[in-house]
Amino acid sequence: MKQLDYSFLGLRQSIYSMLICFICFAFLSCDYPQKSPKEKAAINAESILGNPSYPAISYGGYRGTSRDIQPTLVQLQNDVKILHAMGIRVLRTYDLQFDHSPNLLKAIDALQKEDPSFEMYVILGSWIDCKGAWTDQRDHSVGAIENNTLEIEKAVRLANQYPHIVKVIAVGNEAMVHWQEAYYVKPDVILKWVNNLQGLKKKGELPTDLWITSSDNFASWGGGDDSYHLDALTQLIKAVDYLSIHTYPFHDTHYNEDFWLNRSVSNLSKEDNIEAAMVRAVAYAIGQYNAVKNHLATLGVDKPIHIGESGWSTASEGFYGDNGSHAADEYKQALYYQKIQEWSKQNNITTVYFSAFDEQWKDPNGPLASENNFGLFTIDGKAKYALWPLVDKGVFKSLSREENGPQISKTFEGDLQKVLVKSKAPKTKA
């Protein structure tokens, strides 16, 4: 491929070249030796998490503006093949209310039966709500016992049915952080279910090497203000096999746009301003990781900490778009993806990147809403700028999200200038 010259951008080196080097190192140059079924059976969460040979990503296969229409088995298999081709080996799911997660496991299992060397593992999420969640009668100290019980029971059943695929059960997603006002619970609710699952492991009713965690905001794990530093949280930290924390410098934990507006430096060039902002963003994420690590140290607890979610949206109609901080675009996403993955590999930390594909159901009335656009792929299967080097390498040849659909191609018709025009320097305050 012809080397692209970005010298006009004022960068010390070509961002695209950096992306090529990073992705080739992270995915393409890795050997990924084919493993026998016996070898795969021996692989567990402890050997996967923190291992750069097992990149992880959050996955939702929904194509529409609601979850009423579930992805078909073929669609799920197509997605898994695409993600496998880019080097992903671990998928994170979120709930068991729908057929999505059970069918995903079925899809992976079928692919492995076709090719016993095919590797893909799952962090299986079970959704946890408070009593009266999504109503005006919420009780955050009590869990939605019926629904939560069903979620955990399904997780147990699937972990036993697919022990060669399910390596982690995550109890709840951002279920303790207070700004999830519609459904959050107190830590003791999560603790109850974690202890339940750990008890099943001890009784031999779950695989003993299955890891149990809860995936939540860094503040919920003690890295935020003192309101989270409860005895039940300390017990939970000791009960899980590892901590799965979320960090989002894209919009900050508390959606603090001042992070972008106040710290941008007006006398820098556009490209240097963007580069500085992304370096700062990764430092911000690392700071939140270290805040949790420091809290564990105060408790005298030595336990693995991995990042269960971190990502970057490429569009926004609100705070982070053209009328806000200018944070959202493919150029910045590529820089963040590169930098957070590099740091993760250097420190033997798994960062579950959020996310694989755009999902429009999250805000059906706003196609450009930030929550809809965190994917490395668009909903119709175009690779965003972060993955252009993989398209150039041909790893997605003959792969498509839909049966007989278009092959994976680049966004912006592969025109770099269009990507750069779309990317704006962070705003500065007057």
Strands, helices and their partners?
Blueprint: H1 15-28, H2 37-41, H3 45-48, E1 56-58, H4 73-85, E2 90-92, H5 100-114, E3 121-126, E4 130-131, E5 139-143, H6 145-161, E6 166-173, H7 187-202, E7 211-217, H8 231-239, E8 243-246, H9 258-261, H10 270-299, E9 305-311, H11 330-346, E10 351-354, E11 382-383, H12 388-393, E12 409-410, H13 416-422
Helix pairs in contact: 1-11, 4-5, 7-8, 10-11
Description:
Helices cover 37% and strands 12% of the residues. The chain has a single domain, classed as Alpha-Beta Barrel (TIM Barrel), CATH 3.20.20. The protein has 13 helices and twelve strands. β1, α4 and β2 form a beta-alpha-beta unit. By secondary structure, it is α/β, with parallel strands linked by helices. α1 (15-28) crosses α11 (330-346) and α10 packs parallel to α11. The strands form three sheets. An eight-stranded parallel beta sheet has the order 1-2-3-6-7-8-9-10. A two-stranded antiparallel sheet has the order 4-5. A two-stranded parallel sheet has the order 11-12. Residues 1-13 have low confidence and may be disordered.
State the main characteristics:
430 residues, alpha/beta, TIM Barrel, 8-stranded parallel β-sheet, two-stranded antiparallel sheet, 12 strands, 12% strand, disordered N terminus
Number of strands: 12
Based on Cα principal axes, name the global outline: globular
CATH architectural arrangement: Alpha-Beta Barrel
- The total of helices stands at 13
Overall radius of gyration: 21 Å
Full CATH superfamily name: Glycosidases
What is the terminal separation in angstroms?
Answer: 44 Å
CATH class: Alpha Beta
Q: Roughly what is the average pLDDT, rounded to an integer?
A: 91
Unreliable stretches (pLDDT < 50, length at least 5) are: 1-13
Order of helices and strands: HHHEHEHEEEHEHEHEHHEHEEHEH
**How many domains would you count in the coordinates?**
1
The fraction of residues in strands falls at 5-15%
User: What percent of residues adopt helix (DSSP H or I)?
Assistant: 25-40%
Which structural class should the secondary elements be placed in?
alpha/beta
Kindly identify the CATH topology. TIM Barrel
Largest sheet: 8 strands, parallel
Identify the strand order in the major beta sheet. Answer: 1-2-3-6-7-8-9-10
